[in-house]
Amino acid sequence: MARKLIAFLRLSRPVFLVGGVLLYALGALIARYQGFALDVGVYWSGQLSVTVLQLMTHYLNEYWDVEADRLNHNHTPFSGGSGVLVRGELSRRTAFIAAMVCLALGTAMASRLIFTYAVPPSAWVILVLGFMGAYFYSSPPLTLSSTGYGELTTSIVVASLVPALGHIVQARQPSFLVLLATAPLVMLHLAMLLAFEFPDFLSDEAAGKRTLLVRVGRRTGARLHNALILLALSLAGAAVCIGLPAQVALAVVLTSPLALLQISLVRRLQRRDPVSFTRLTFLGLLLFVLAASFTTLSFWAIGTG
Question: What is the DSSP letter of 99?
């Protein structure tokens, strides 16, 4: 039983849940910065909705990607799935049931937000779009992960819509400031997903999984990855001119040394020099998490604007 529980914990990939906590908090802290009082009940209902939908996504990804994961010989702690289903530690059925339980819980929490706290219709739209992006990333009939648009869709959902939900359930109105604060994070999240796809390239190609990297090729994908990181840093600086607090922009710019290190690593990959995929994926994740953390902490530090 203990082995099954540990395997299920690995299947859940809890390390990736941290991003949902950070980004939802970012939205709420932007509302606080704008002078809105935070409602604790609304906050936790929204956070639970985000977390269970994240878990649903993890379980569905594992369920639908098992064949591609079985072909993957470049597995890292951050890419190629958990490996739990491939090794037979748990059945595919377990992953699917877990996903459906999370779907039910997410629906219940979203209903609580809508009917108990009477959040505005714009929050409903965000919840529906977030659900569709999460469910259909790996699941048919859309299977966004094989269209070439799944990575962008996921980055928008995770790095923009999650903060937008955290903000709108507190402020009860949309804000351009959320877009300014999250635009660099969307770019870094997309770059991170591309970094995750480099170790999986051959197995995805062999399994017929037409990810963005498989579609554009590794050389073009490497250039796109580096351009996205540079664009993220540029957007943070430019956003100061149209309303983003300078402290927040500085928080993103502080990740520049790590960003340049990641770019240099991908350039080595372009030259076909030996590169550790574990290091590549870890730095991609670390860059995004640090940028999200620094952005969130900066809004917390500056308090009410």
Answer: H
